[in-house]
Structures are given as structure tokens and as C-alpha cells.
UniProtKB/TrEMBL annotation:
Enzyme superclass (EC): transferase
Protein known as: Receptor-like serine/threonine-protein kinase
Repressor among keywords: no
One of the record's GO molecular function terms: ATP binding
Organism annotation: Panicum virgatum (Blackwell switchgrass)
A single BP term in Gene Ontology: recognition of pollen
InterPro entries, per the entry: Bulb-type_lectin_dom (IPR001480), Bulb-type_lectin_dom_sf (IPR036426), Kinase-like_dom_sf (IPR011009), Pan_app (IPR003609), Prot_kinase_dom (IPR000719), Protein_kinase_ATP_BS (IPR017441), S_locus_glycoprot_dom (IPR000858), Ser/Thr_kinase_AS (IPR008271)
Bulb-type lectin domain residues: 26-150
Bilayer disposition of the protein: Single-pass type I membrane protein
Amino acid sequence: MATPPCALPLLFGLMFLLQGDPSQAGDTVAAGRPLSGGESLVSKRGKFRLGFFQPDNSSDHWYLGIWYNQISLHTTVWVANREAPITDPASSQLSISSDGNMVILDHRRSAVWSTNVTGVAPNSTVGVILDSGNLVLADASNTSVVRWQSFDHFSDTWLPGGKLGRSKRTGEVTRLVAWKGSGDPAPSMFSLELDPRGSSQYLLNWNGSEQYWSSGNWTGRAFAAVPEMTSTGASPLSKYTFGYVDGEDESYFVYDVTDESVVTRFRVDVTGQIKFLTWVEAAAEWVLFWSEPKRQCDVHAVCGPSGVCTENALPSCSCPRGFRARRPAEWLQADHTAGCSRNAGLACGGAPDGRQSKSRNEDRFYPMPSVRLPSNAQSAAAASARDCELTCLGNCSCTAYSYTGGCSLWYGDLINLQDTSGGGGAGGSSSSIWIRLAASEFSGTGNKTKKQLVIGLAVAAGSVAAVTATVLAAILILRCRRTRSLRRVEGSLMAFTYRDLQFVTKNFSEKLGGGAFGSVFKGALPDSTLVAVKKLEGVRQGEKQFRAEVSTIGTVQHVNLIKLLGFCSQRTRRLLVYEHMPRGSLDRHLFETSSSHGVLSWETRYQIALGVARGLEYLHDKCRDCIIHCDIKPENILLDEAFVPKVADFGLAKLMGRDFSRVLTTMRGTVGYLAPEWIAGTAITTKADVFSYGMMLFEIVSGRRNVGRPDDGGAVDFFPSTAVGLLLDGDSGGAVDGRLAGSADAAEVERACKVACWCVQDDESLRPSMGMVVQVLEGLVDVNTPPIPRSLKVLADPSKYVQFFSGLPST
């Protein structure tokens, strides 16, 4: 009985499972021994598998590809027939043809793909899958003689050992080309290649011509625009070797791993970003080390014609008002290249003299504020916004205009339009654009509901009972409006009045704590959501600036960052409304000896350290704007019911505006966490947060303040110096909080102490990024023993700082 077509995916999946030991599948295809159906080849040590696969079970497209054989997630690294899928793998095959080439034959025995090598003797070659993930066509008598290899014809993935470069003799380049969609291996518009003009830089291109990112030229150690390659010590790249070769016949870049247990790959993603990924088996997922461009919306035409990109949103692409996805099925596969099309065609009204027609069917303009303007604007002479609008209306090809002191017009599709209403990060200033739409897109309902209410009240006015009912209804409506105004809307910020927050906090009656920027009070929204309301003190911006900056912070969403729910800005009053953290701040659990706080276990401490690192990584590298916290300390780490840490007050550096550096230098209570460059008055980078994190990590390990104040004239004890000394002596366990009674994981303790010491290096270039810190704490990479920072050596001598610390106010 024939197998029904719908059962083929299940059948081949079952065949894969039943193959047993991968080594028994063989690694070679030869003349007379083709590969077909559910059969596959496996490299000698079982690292890679070659066979037919189906990337999207909803389609009938099958491809010949290579994927990892020893990880739990099917991850394809190479595809042969990207542009010519087959529909019946059972009757298709990979074989050696009579001319010695490797070919894919479909069910009609027609060749849909071939290695296309000339000058090969018939029946003299074999195809072999290697443990590097490279498929080679080699001489049957000596497989070290390679006639063709997949490493010269990359798909979207660049594996260790592969050369990505250019032949100087033929001009041929090897390039990575992204998949068109998550389920479609066909080549997309996005590619990575070595500069064909001869320089040593790598370029990300759209459609082979529009460059949107460059690595910068090779400096001898790294690429100029990839500073991560020069990081030392705690860098995750320490397990990799990199080399750029500029020879007589070819130029290429190659990388390799020094630890065979590391599974890694470079990939040009469907999003148009190049990503460096490493497999973490414990999490059963690929972990991102590095990507470029950092911002998704910096990828050229990532959302296609007339699509709108929104940074850090899911999905990142959407269509503006009056438009819809041109190919919805492709959008579901993350392929946005087709962009958006209009719901209704333009009437292209407008009188010949450029004046606006009175016709109801004339096109109109929809304003879209807070955007990064699209590419390819054309200037036009216009004395006002109205003149600019009329100029656009007078040309049937004009689709949008913007007026910011000058008139800019767009013709045809809008490319690279970005919504920055959530706080910017567009790499330029935000503007407004007016998009041309058909008149039918503006047929709203008006105030029909309100009119009906007025008529109803007028009819009832003759009845006293009706009037009474109306008054009562009005009162109820007012109460309901207040209740609705206080309800938290998921994914948005609420603008509260001061009276609202008095109501929420019972007139600020329950104080949770306070700090340099104000006091915090407990409150509850009408839906019983607990909140923490912070009254800011010393914030002097105007209301417009305050709202804009709060809006930026309000878009920051991460499990390890405190969530901002709303704000109040009335006259000189500035308040922030956060989610409530029932466990309070970390310092209470580390330093207080109250019986109400049990001793934090080592496992909990380590997860707190890792969570804070992830939150800071998000602030530094994954937000629209790079946000530097500037005040990392245990008091600013809040814990939820499950002891999940959340970085709090992360927006205050931005909220304080230009005055913040001056205000911070007077915050003497947190001097113990300030990086040397802060005190020296030099420019501040994210590495200032890294230093503060390192100082806090010492405290998490020890369960005590870094600086022990002298009692009865005794010596000041500076713990980081003690911890580094123990680390160098091979006794990092001696640095752990004694209350844990030796129950800490020795490997994690050593890792945490090394990370802390790298973080507090005097030279900020030696400090790891927070992304690197995360990788180290997760155990993905090892770190070398760090040098002792000069500042720790100085502070190890009590005579150097007793007088300084004794002059500090109490914290």
C-alpha cells in the first residue's frame, strides 16, 4: 500500500530516529551508492550529519543540508539546493554522476544541483562529510585531494576552519547569504563578504550593493570596528584563534576554536544581522556572544518597502496606518522583505496648479510623529508645512512629506522608516512624517456615541426621576473613570496625577525606604497590584524633558530590571511608579543580622549575581540607547518573592541629565563602588558600571561590606584585597561568607572571585563587558587569573586610606 503524502514528514522523522549509531551511517557517497530519502551521512566522529530535511513542516519543500548531529536542536549550517527545493525526497537522491560531479537528482532524475567541477575523470570521485562540517568532492583513491568543497560555497553559516575571503586571481569571493525566512533557505537580500574593492574590511550588504555595516580594516590584531576582538583576560573570545591572511593569490579571514567541546558558528541571520553564537547544552539553546549591527533597525530595508521598524519590539516590523503586510505568510517566517502595501489605492487628487481640491475623495495625510525619517528624501522649496503638503499633493508619485524648517518629499516606497516613539535609539534625531493615504482611510466614527448620549439626556430631562438617575450615573461615571485611570495597562506607561498617587499610597503612609534621590512608599492599584511609588528629589528638568526620558526608560523590559509602570509630573512634583518587590533590597539580606532575614544560600547568591549581570548587559548592549546605571550597589538590587534580582533606579542617571555627574560625585555614601575614572573626572563608559558590579560581587561572595569600619581604633579592613590574596593563594573558598559553613560550590566561588577582580581593574580596557561577565558566570568560558589592580594594592595598606574612609558619612 502506498504511503500517503501527508505521512512523509513523520515517516522520515521516524527513519532518522531508527538509524541508531551515527557512525554506522557512513560518511561517504560514491558512484553506485547514492543517498536518498531518509538516509544520511555522518562524519567520522559524529559531529555533523548530511541528509534531506524539511525546514518548514507546513510546506512540501525539501533540501539537502548539513546540520549538527550531537546537539538537541536541529540547526542547519549548509544547504545545497537553496533555490531549487525538491518535493519528493523518497525518489530523489544525492549521487556521483558519470562526469564525476556530486549532483542532486529529483524524482524525474533531473539534476537540480551540481558541484559543476570540470576536468574530473568519470567514476573517480566520492563525496565525504568531514567533522569540520565541510562537504568535499574528493578523489576516490586519495580523499585528501579535494576537487570541490562546501566551505567555498557558504550558505548563511560560517564554521570554524572555513575561509571567508576573495581570490585575487579570479576575483571570486566567498560570502554568507542569509535565509529568506526562518523556514525558507532561499538566498535573501542580506550578505556578508570581504570588500571586493580590495580592502581588508568585511561588509554587510543589502542586495549586493547597499552597505549598512563594516568591520573596519584589519589592524594586525583585530578589525577596527570590532573592539571585542582586542579584549583580554575575561573575554569569551579567549577560546578562539583569529587570523587574517593577505597572500599573493587570496585574502581571507579564518577562525578556529582551541577547545573542541565548544560548538560555535557565525551566521547572517534572517534579520540581516551577523551573529556569533555558541551552543549551551544545559540550556538547550544557542547563546549570542556578539552581533552587528547592534540595533536591529540599522539593517537596511529590514522591514521592506513602507514597513516600520521598532527597536526591541516583537515583532520588530509592522505596517503603518493604511498599509498591510504584502505577503502575510512570509511575515510569519520573519521574512519582511516584501514590506507593506496600501489598503486602498491613492486617488491622486490635487489640481494641476497644486492647490488642494475640495473633492471628498482626495488623498489626505496621516501624521506619524517620533520617527527616524526614511532614506532617499528629496528637498523641495516650501515656505511652510502647508506649502510642503501642497507640493506633495501636486505630484501623483509623492507618498510622504516632512517639514522641519525645510521640505522633504518621498516618492514611491518608504525605506528605513523607524518608529522611535518609545524613546529613540534611531541613531539620529526624531522627526515627524506625513504619509499620504486614500480618503477612505479617514472615515472614522466621529462622536456618534457622545451625540447619542446627549440626545438621551435631553429626552429624559422632562422626568425628575430621569434627572436623578442621570446625576447618579454621572457620579458613577466619574468614579469609574478614576478607577480606569489607575488600572495598569500591560506594555504601557500610565500618567498619574498627584492625587491618584495619594489615593494609591494612602497619602504616602507606608514608607519602604529611601535613598539619595528620594523616598519610596508602598501602594496598591485598584486591581490590587502592589506598587512602589518613589518621590524624586532634586530632579529639575521641565515636564516635557522628564516625560520624554521616562518614556525611554519605560520601554526597557527585562526580567532582571525593575519595571516602571507609570509616573507623575505636575509642576515641581516628579514621581515614579514601579512594580513592588516583596523581598526588598539585597543589602538587607547580605548585611543585616535580623532573624527576619535568613542567610542567603550560595546558590541563591550566585543566581542573583548572574541575574544582575544579565540586567546590566541588557542596559548596556540591547536597549535602544546605551544606558549607564552609574549607581550599582546592593541597595539598588531588589528581590522578588522567588529572589529573582531586579536592578532598580537604572534610569536615574539619564533622568538627572547634564547635572548628574556633578550630583554623583557628591554622593559620598557610594564612593566604595565608584570607578577610578569617575573620581578622576574623565569620560564615563559602561565600564564604570562593570567596576561597580565587581565591587558588589565581592560583597555577595563575602556577605559583608567591602570596607570594614574601624572599631575602637582598630585597623580598617578592605575585603577585595583580602579576596584577591586568597584567590592568588588558591584559597578562594576562604573568601566566602562564614555563615554558609563551607556549603558553597568551589568552582563557582573561584569563578566569581576571578570575575570580580577582572571587573575592578584600574584600566577600563581590561575590564570585561557585562555580556562577557554573563558568559563567564554561566560557565561557557574559563578566565585567566587576573592581575591585582594597583588600587587594591594601595588600599590593602590601611595607612593609605584610614583617614579618607573615616571622613565618610554613614551609609
